[in-house]
Design brief:
Blueprint: E1 11-15, E2 18-23, E3 27-29, E4 36-38, E5 44-46, E6 51-53, H1 56-63
Antiparallel strand pairs: 1-2, 3-4, 5-6
Length: 67
Amino acid sequence: MLMSSRNQPARLEYGPNGFRVLRAGRYVLCAVTEAEIPLEDLRYWSVERQEAYASAEIATRRLTGQE
């Protein structure tokens, strides 16, 4: 059975003002919680770490070493 790219995580390159889709998918995983983040809801990421976060609180904890 073939899986559609819509059912798989996307692979992104994170930049300071947005991201570029390297592999199509409908979501990315939060680097801390592993929660699925739909691409249309993705707001928080680290350019240096190249990882996504599910919320501002999670991003802050991760980037300040409190996760």
